[in-house]
Amino acid sequence: MSMLHESGEDYLEAILMLQIKRGSVRSVDIAALLGVTKASVSKAMANLEARGYVEMVKRDVRLTEAGREVAERMLERHEFFRGLLIAAGVDPEVATEEGCHMEHCLSDDSFHKLQAYLSR
Fold this sequence. Notes:
By secondary structure, this protein is mostly helical. 69% of the residues lie in helices and 7% in strands. It has helices spanning 6-22, 27-34, 38-50, 65-87, 92-102, 108-118; strands at residues 54-57, 60-63. A hairpin with a 2-residue loop joins strand 1 (54-57) and strand 2. The N and C termini lie far apart (34 Å). The mean pLDDT is 93.
């Protein structure tokens, strides 16, 4: 599997969040959550499917094992940074947006070290 761009990671995270909330995921649900067009979602899903991260089954979008691994990692990071920012006094809406950016910029090693350090 090749490396994903930030947007690809965001799509996978959105799919996971929708699966947790609703069970099944359609492209229109992803578009609504991310605030993008259905055409953008269609293009992204074709790319992610070609790379082995999602499967399109009729109208449902499903994460593959590889896609779920990336999505869970991104969601964990997002929730960590969002919580950290809120604990520091940042407005929850701002923390959600900024946590989304922060989740992408650290290596796995740095993230886990920071997480361990702050958990002491």
